[in-house]
Design goal:
By secondary structure, this protein is α+β, with helices and mostly antiparallel strands. The protein has a single domain, classed as 3-Layer(aba) Sandwich (Hypothetical protein yfbM fold). It is 27% helix and 23% strand. The chain has helices spanning 34-37, 41-44, 74-81, 88-100, and strands at 3-8, 30-33, 48-51, 57-59, 66-69, 104-107. The chain has a 6-stranded antiparallel beta sheet. Strand 3 (48-51) and strand 4 form a beta hairpin. The N and C termini lie close together (9 Å). 28% of the residues are buried.
Length: 109
């Protein structure tokens, strides 16, 4: 089962540090099945993220890697998710992180 995992980073990413380790337990991640994420990729590819490090800006999710989602992009991600029930946990996570001005870490498939 291919899945994407999302969690709130308690400490913001540090410049010069790469986030390359698969550690979903460290961020209390939630899982979203790839069948739900894959159709959104064209829209997510228009949104600013960081890939593995805040020193590496990019557009869209690092599909098979690690994405750092800044608070400034969370509104755009929420707009892409729509109101499908299966995205409810992710919407809640994004809203909470945005309110707390924290990054979300995404572990791709």
């Amino acid at each position: 089962m291919a899945k994407h995992e999302f969690g709130i980073m308690t400490d913001g990413p540090v410049q010069g540090v790469r986030y390359d380790s698969y550690e979903p337990w460290k961020y209390n991640c939630i899982s979203i099945h790839d069948d739900y994420i894959e159709p959104l990729l064209p829209e997510l590819d228009k949104i600013d993220f960081f890939w593995h490090s805040i020193d590496n800006p990019g557009k869209g999710l690092a599909y098979c890697g690690i994405t750092l989602i800044p608070p400034s992009s969370m509104g755009d991600v929420l707009a892409v998710l729509g109101d499908w029930d299966f995205f409810a946990p992710l919407r809640e996570l994004l809203v909470r992180a945005k309110a707390e001005k924290k990054f979300i870490i995404h572990f791709g498939i």
